[in-house]
Amino acid sequence: MSIHTSLQNSMPELVAIRRDLHEHPELGLEEFRTSDVIARHLESYGYKVTRGLATTGLVATLTNGTGRKSIGIRADIDALPIFEETGLPYASKTPGKMHACGHDGHTTMLLGAAKAIAERRNFDGTVHLIFQPAEENFGGARIMVEEGLFTQFPCDAVFGLHNEPNLPFGQFALREGPIMAAVDEARITVNGVGGHGAEPQETLDPIVCGASIVMALQTIVSRNIHPLDPTVVTVGSFHSGSASNIIPSRAEIVLGIRSFDPGVRDELERRIRLIAERQAESYGMSATVNYQRFYDATINHKAETDLVRDLAIRFAGADKVVDLERPFMGSEDFAYMLKERPGTYFFLGGKSGENDKSLHHPGYNFNDDLLPVGAAFWTELAEHYLRAA
């Protein structure tokens, strides 16, 4: 029986698993029930399951033959702090938590592949299936690496995918080199002197100063960074004041920053700090900048990207495989696995109709028809990479 036929026959089971996970979403480093469900299935397939990396992460290992080569395939398992608005019968049962990014689907696809790989045993070497927590917030991939992921489970290469509802169904989208951006956050606090709104001359107004900072920040990308370096500086939050007749004593501005090049990343931080501090000084005030670097850029390796591209063409046809002209400005902590091991990260289109909602939308719903596609591709990748002599 072919992989595709086998997995199509498993659709009812896969859909049941995915919808169960969807009904019971858990946030990063809290995925205890999710981890239990995953472990139970993997153990029933015959895998050795190691739990506890990054609190709720787990790795399933299966060895066949005498080959010394090994592959790692990763799925993220956490949900988002979003109130679901799908109205589906299997909608989240936990208000304020939702699988709005499709990690329930990613997990289920890898479980489907796990079962097929174990049943077929058509490989020579070791398969490590990595179920990673906390992709959305706490960098579960980095934590797993720091806790010895690749020391305990050596991988010659690692692979990861993400569903994309804005791409045609079943389309593979790849890119050698940078594919996802580094993400940072800056919190600027402007310290002024509050007072009565009718006597502004007695105050130092942090709102006026903050507005000036916001406008000056817009010049960084347009005037300080090379036009061909993809970069974003977004003011996502500006909070200050409580009433029309009160001038507040402080304002807080929160920025989201995206980049790819390490040198550009350094320059962004330098300019943001300088603009905030000097603009505040020009108004007779002070500003403090709390700058945090979060995920690094996700950089794909050439050999593994070429391997996935060639396999995807055989798997789905050349018309279903595209090379992205430019990277996505979103971020992904799979970056930390790719810094330790060669590999690649790619997108798999899941569009089901004109009314599909985007990732992180409260009305988003993973397309279940994608489950056997992803599971079959992971199976073929593992078997191809560890093909018997």
From TrEMBL:
Keywords: Hydrolase. InterPro entries: Amidohydrolase, Bact_exopeptidase_dim_dom, Peptidase_M20, Peptidase_M20_dimer. The keyword Transcription regulation does not apply. Residues 186-282 form the Peptidase M20 dimerisation domain. This is M20 family metallopeptidase. It comes from Shinella curvata.
